[in-house]
Every structure is written in C-alpha cells, then in structure tokens.
Specification:
2 domains; homotetramer; alpha/beta
C-alpha cells in the first residue's frame, strides 16, 4: 500500500482517515491541534509535523473545518513549498464553489492536481465507509483516487470536470434539505394549530409520499423538537443557503423562495442560544408564529 | 353484503366504487353524466336515478369533482328530502376545510352522519385498493365504515374527530409536495446552469437523502419536463396552496414561503396553455429565469 | 367506547391490550398469573376474575401462550358457561390449524363467533400498533372487529372465510423465514470456509437482492451469532416446521426440503442449552460441520 | 481515455461494453459471431479480429457465455501468444471457482494479471451502469480497474485477494436465491391447497417480512407462473447449485438441504420443454405434487 496524507481530523476527518488506515495504507495525518491525531496514530497512522509533510507523500486528502482553514492550509506558499511532483490534493470538505475555483487555480499554478470530493453522510456513515462522495475534477485524477474514495464511501458520483461543480451540487442538495425542513415546519404549524398531533402527521408523511433521511430524520427531530445536540447548526445552514443564493445569482437564476427562507433563518437565529441549535430549528419559526 | 351508495364516478370514484362492487357489495352508483356508470353496472353495480336514491341506502360514499359539486349534490334540500335514518355520508373527495365544516353542520341538521375520508394516491393505487385514507369524524362512525374503507385503501389513518381535520391534513401533505417540487425546480435550475445534468442530479437526490414518490416521481417528471398529461394541474395546485394559506391564516400562523410559492404558481400559469400542465411545472419558473 | 375482554397477558398480549386501553376502550383483562394484569389495570383496564368474565363482555380477544392454553381456557364447558349472546372470540395467537378448526367448531356449537387473527411482528411493533394482522373467519365478524384490529395493527390482511386459513398462512410465512435462515446459514458456512467475512457477505446480500427483516434481521443475528436472548426459540421453530409439514400432508403436498430442515433443527437442539437459543441458531449446523 | 478490450458480446456483455464506449473509452470488441459487434461499432467501438487483438490493448474485460468459452478463449496458448506486458484480464462472467483458480494460475504463468469481477443484475441494470460488481484479486489490480468498474456498476464489492473468492460469493448469493424460490414455491403449494390465493400470499410476504428482488421478482413470477421467457434457465440453476455443493464439499461443509434442492431441479427438468424455463419453475414441483 502506498503512503498518503490526511489533513483535518475533526470527527468526520478522523473517521474517514481511520478507514484508510484500516485498509492498510500508511497515512500521514495532521491536525491543527495535534491531540486529535493520537487515536489514529494508535491505530497505525503516522503523525505529520506539518501539512507540508502530508503533502509530500504526493497524495493528500483534506477535511478541514471551513473555507478559511482550507484557504490557509493550502495557501500558494504552502503549495510552492512542497517539492514532490506529481502531487494531488483531494478536498473532501464542503467549501464554497468560489473557494473551490480559487483553490483549483492556485493548485494548477503550483503544479499540484486538485479534486473536490465533498460527501453526503454524517460520522456514523463515515465510520462504516458508507458515505456518498460527490467527485469533481479531471476524470483521470478522479480515476486515480477511486481506490481511496471507495474505501471511504459506498458510492462515488462523478459530477463534472470542474472541482467547483461538486461543491455546487452539495449546496443544491442542502438547499433541498432546507426546503424539506421548512415544509415540515410550516405544515406541522398548520396541523398542530388545528388539533392534529405533529408526530402522527410526520409518520403519515413518511409512510406515504415522502422518504429518505431528509424527511424521516428531520421529521422526527422537528416533531419532537430535539434540536440539540445539533448535527449541523443554524449558522452553518444559513451559510449554505447563502451559497445557493450566490450560485444562482452568478448565472442570473432567480430562486423565488430564497429571500423567505433567509428571513426564516434570521428569525430563528434571533433567539438567544440559537447558534447552537440544529438547522432544522427553522421549523419553530412558523410554530412560534401561532397566536 | 349490504347495499350502499356511491356518488361521483370520475376516474378515481369509478376505481374506488369498483373495489366495493368486486368485494361483493350491492352498490347504487350515480354520476352527473350517466354514461360513467355503465362500466360499473356491467360489473354488477346498480344505476341510481339520483343522488337521493344512493343516499336512501343509508350509507353513501362520494368522490365528487370539487367543492361546488359536493355542495350542490349534498345541499340542505337534498339531505332533507332523504328519509332513511340512520344515514351516513362518507366524503372521500379533497374538499376545503371550510366546506367540510359547512357539510358537517348541514348533515347534522338533517340528522345524517358525516365523515371526511380524503385519500392519498392516484387511480392505479385506487384500482388495487392501496390508497392511504385520511379519516376524520366521529370515531364510532369511522369504525362502522372500516369494512368499506379497508377495501378501498391499504391503510386508514385516524386524523381526528372533526371531519375538517382530515381535509386539513390532506392540504398540509400537498403543501409538502409543493415545497418538494419547488425545491427540485430551483436546485435543478442552479446545477443545470453550471453544467450538471438534471436527471443525474435527481438520481443523486433520490438515491441518497430523499425518497418517496414525491421526490422520485416528481423528480423524474421535472428532470425530463414531462408535464403532460397532468396528474394534477397547476390551477388545482394553486387552489390547494390557497387552502393551506387559509388554514394558516385562520389560526394566525405565518407561512413564510407561501407568498413566494404563490407568485411561482402565478408566473407558471401566465404562460399560454399552462392550465393543462401538471403542477410540477412550477419547476420551470426558476429554470426559465436563467439569462 | 364499548367494553371488551382480553385474555392472555404475556409480553405480546400486554402490549396489544394496552393499545386498546389507550384508545379509550374499557378492557376486562385476565391472565393465569394475575400479576401480569397490574400494569394494565394501572393504565385503566379492569381486572377480570376469570376468562368467563372477560367473555361476558360479548367480545373477547385472546393471546394465550400455546395451543394447550387456548384449548383449556376456551373449553366447551367455558363457552357453555358464558351466557352473553351474541358473543365473539378473536384469537390472535398462532395456534395450529387443527386447533383453529376445533375451536371454530366448538365455538359454533356454543353459539359464539370465532375469528382467527394471528399477527406478524414482535412486541415493539405491538406497542406501536404496527403489527400486520392476518384475519380469517366470517367476513361480517371480521368487519365488526376492524375498529379494534386497526388499533393493534397497521394493516389487516383478509385471508379467507375459515379461521384456520389465517393460522395456515402464518405457518407458511414462518416456513419462508426458516428457509431464509437456513439459506443464510449454509451460504455463510461456504463463504467463511473460503476466507470471506460473514458480516460483509450479509451486507452484500441485504444491499442487493434480499431485503425485509427476515434477511436483514436474521442475517445480522447469524453473522454475529447473537442467538440470545431468543426472539423465538428453536423448539418453537421446530413446532412451526411441523405445522407446515402437517398442513402439506393433509392435502397431499410434498415439501421436498422439509425433512432436511427438520434434521437441522434436531441437530441444533441436540446441543446442550439449545432450547433457549433463537431459532436462527439452525444456521450453526452447517457452520459447525466444517472440518 | 485509454484503449481497452472487451470480449464476449451477449446481451450482458454488449450492455456493459456499451457503457465503456459511452464513457469515452476506445474499446476493441470481439465476439465469436462477429455480428454481435455491429451495434457497438456503430456506437464507436472498434472491431477486433481476434481475442488476442483485444488483449493486446493491455487491459481486456470478458463476459463469455460459460466456463468452456472462457477456458478456450483464454487458453495458455492464447495468453502466451499475446506480447503486450503488463497486461490484465478482468473476467466478469460467473465462472466456476475451479476455473477461476485454473485461469488465475494460467494467467500468472503467462505474466498476465487476472481479476474476477462477476456481477449481480440483469441487462437493464447493466445498461444503466447499476450492476453490483463482486471483485476478487490482487487489490492493486482491482484498484487499477475501478475507473472502468464504476462505469459498469453502481457499487464495487471487494471480496478478497483470490479471484475465485468472488466467484464463490456469487454462487453463495445464487444459493440464497434458490432457497428463496423453493420456499416461495413450497409455501404457495401449501396455502393454495387450502384455498388461499397465491398472489395475495406473495403480496403479504413482500409487504411484511421479505423484500428485495429475490422475493418481489420471483414471488411475482411464481405466483403467476410466468416462467418464460427465462431470465436464467433451470439447467443453469442446477449447474449453480452444483457449484455450491462443490464449494461446500471442498472444505468439508455439509449443506443439509442441497440434496433435496437437487432432486427438485431434477424433477422440474424431467418435464418436457423444461430446459427453456426460468429456474424459478422449481416452484412447480411442490405445486404439482398436490393430489
């Protein structure tokens, strides 16, 4: 097995890196706070002193927390400082399409390949290698990393030849989730106010015309108002809504419902402590509007 | 088997009445244009000369085309003219909650029981007895008609003791469908404009986080723009959206996205010939907004 | 709500009776050891002093442990001693078709109606009212108890006009489960002996061509050899296999695999302590046969 | 895109090769009767004059009809006659484990890599790229062909490092299908003889405890006795049963039901014309045994 790098060891990154270690690869792992690397090192990974060291393997996967972290760790300087070529960076985090384009260009300038491979699925699926992976980038580069992606995910979806397209599709999926949560919230507000039980209504929805974890999972959370611990917070949800708005604006597309959805997020976030709530707490806005 | 009545023989009503005939019941059937009764009579039903004759059996099911038809056929005069008591009317059409309340009151005045039992499912499921039936009304009355409802549906959902509650839940389900169609339309508009194939995107959605016929069925229709023949037309969709708005307004609930959804329907309907399109054609509004 | 009786308060019977209590019915409950009635009485049920007292309500459901218990509690003497007529007994336990026929005849002699309504589903589904109920008997009698059956189950399947037919179908379903468990066991024995992981193989089966709890549930149990606590024991499984053999023999049908399946059960039961194992432990017979 | 070869253009092979052509690869196709290549050539493939020519690309996939064909086309002589090295042969047909071992050894002698990649799924799934692919062989070789396998299948299952293990797992999956068909057949024989409708019984099974195409697909075929056209014939089914028996015997495992299943196949095949029937026609053996 070859030696590879993995940068960004939050809960998702750690679970994904662990799959690679367990599959027999030598994985040089790095995280800003080094403690996160300990369990992986115990399982057989090698601690890298710096992201550059991980990149020097020639193939580095990253799952950094946000755009700023990805931007900083894979700066032009950092890329230029690495010497190993050919080299490839597979960014599995859900960065913005704008950063994806900047990173693609920056990597190209440095002679490093760049593939976007954001994922659908939470940490439990990551641990079982059952993520859905949305791959964007040069098909030959994607081909080359399929052996690793198929260890981390049950299915790899080829989205397009531009890395940013994969990030865009991830945003479009999340936009559908926002709609589903809002629809559940508004419709529960209606039926509850007329004396119909919310959880019975959700059972009806999900036993008949609606399925998938978007409806079953969020329906259950909303019916029982279990917004903590958050799987994905309200501020992150609002950020993703903004990315959908940006992606539409860029090509002159109108998203008729987006302004209303934005106001819902803002109303939800105006409550004290709302930053820590799951994004499905937008459902409370309609519920709370009842006299 | 007892004798019962069935009024309103459109494609849905005919399929439902046929189930009752095939189960061995003597069914007195009536339709405004009598020709619709012919296939049922050939299968063993008895043609009634008037709705009153169907009501005289003591138990009549109805599946009339719209509020106006239900209001006219089950007028105070018609109910008063029937003499058989006890008598029960099970209204399986998706009338407005307002009419449901008016009918419940009117039937009570005439000493006739009233149950609302709107359905989820199209004519193919009706023919196989696999509808989902949303039953609202006096539990003892609902109990009494379970032998008939379980012939027409695979599952009977007890919604509440007021008939109008069942109609309200049907509207809330449809409101979720409207949201799903709009979310699919807006997100397809985004990804298509960035070079991603619509049907591949729908396959991704429905293979991962979204399921049920709302997403699989409408996703497929929207991806391929197959808006004709319509399963449910744009004007009917807009009417149902209005019923959701009314139901919310009645109890002082705010539906943040409803005004935007209404504008989408209105924009879609402004196109020539749009009245005949499936309601999922609302998805074209965002797609058409692209430069 | 009417007053009804419920006899036999094991874990399944208690969960089912509880649904009836929670739906607002007055339920006279009886169990051989009276302590089992306490939680139900706390929830609003009324303790009956004898099965006869439950039968005197005119409608009694039973979920007794086995044929012998049902035979004893609903003896000709017990039925004759009850005076309330009309009266109906709905037997929801999985008794043998032979006893079903004897009970049907005995009840008829006493002027008491008899319906068989065995169920699919364990106690968790019973508690949620999501059992599948297989109803056999006079359609008018089944119609009359639908209000109660739909409280205990999500779907009522009309099997036929003879009560024994419902018990027979239950046995035929269980025969399919036995085959599924044996197929899983034999095929795991093959692949494991050739170095393929059992749980990976089960995941493959259930992600591709096989589904439903028979394959997913028992596949998981067998892959990980979790035969305790038993959901349904080996001796009960062998008894059900015998009932399938009897049902076939009665009409001159050959079941080619039954003798082999019987030997598998007997081999499994020859191990010390096997009586307490789940019936899926038959899968170990092939696994243990490996040199 | 690289140039590759594809040998064996039956309905499955043609659909699979077409996926590779449509993905932009240059595919040298060969079939014993050359006419089968015409549609692929029209779609952009290149006709090879001989299997050797396809092998000369350095990477050849094969989907030949049976063991004999695979054995003949990939003879030691044919392999030795090819000069291109490194070279890899991915055999996607369901050959016997014995031939898989012989081929693996023969290829190794010739310095050609060998991977087994039998598939689950019929031609409709092949055409949509939704096969499940069971991959066995050197992990590095499997890694290298993932770009092609993920074009033909929705998911690639890594079975083990020996090619024969993948063929063995395919046999074990088919053994489960045989059991399912036999269980359906025997249980339908029982219930039908007692007056219960076969298709209603299958609907009960597949709506409750059994799912996946094994139960839904074969349940439907058996209930309605639609054994023609055959998806997979009785003689092929008996051959696969024999392979399961061989695989068990090789490691000293006892398959208790196999002798009975073999007799069922032999009895089914004793009927005139049975060779052309679908293997699920084994279900008729019990049904026909009824007096």
């Amino acid at each position: 097995m070859t030696e590879i790098g993995f940068v960004g060891l939050g809960t998702m990154g750690s679970a994904m890196a662990r799959r690679l270690v367990d599959a027999g690869h030598t994985v040089r792992v790095w995280n800003r706070s080094a403690a996160a690397a300990a369990p992986l090192v115990a399982a057989g990974a090698v601690a890298a002193e710096s992201p550059a060291e991980a990149l020097e393997t020639g193939l580095v996967f990253s799952m950094l927390a946000n755009d700023a972290a990805a931007d900083a760790v894979f700066s032009a300087e950092a890329l230029a400082a690495s010497t190993r070529r050919p080299a490839l960076h597979v960014n599995m985090a859900s960065v913005s399409p704008a950063l994806a384009r900047a990173l693609a260009s920056r990597h190209a300038d440095a002679g490093v390949g760049y593939v976007a491979a954001p994922v659908l699925g939470r940490v439990n699926l990551a641990a079982e290698g059952k993520l859905n992976i949305l791959a964007g980038g040069d098909p030959a580069l994607v081909d080359g990393v399929l052996p690793y992606l198929t260890v981390m995910g049950q299915r790899v979806w080829r989205i397009g030849e531009e890395p940013a397209q994969a990030n865009l599709v991830k945003i479009a999926v999340n936009f559908n989730i926002i709609h589903a949560m809002e629809a559940i919230g508004e419709s529960i507000a209606i039926v509850e106010s007329h004396g119909v039980d919310a959880s019975g209504f959700v059972e009806l929805l999900t036993s008949t015309l609606f399925g998938g974890v978007s409806y079953t999972g969020y329906g259950d959370i909303i019916a029982h108002r279990r917004y903590q611990p958050a799987g994905f917070t309200l501020p992150l949800g609002l950020k993703d809504l903004g990315l959908a708005e940006d992606a539409a604006a860029e090509v002159g597309i109108t998203l008729p419902t987006a302004p209303a959805l934005r106001r819902v997020f803002e109303t939800a976030l105006a409550q004290p402590g709302a930053e820590a709530l799951d994004w499905s707490a937008i459902a409370e806005v309609s519920r709370n509007s009842a006299g």
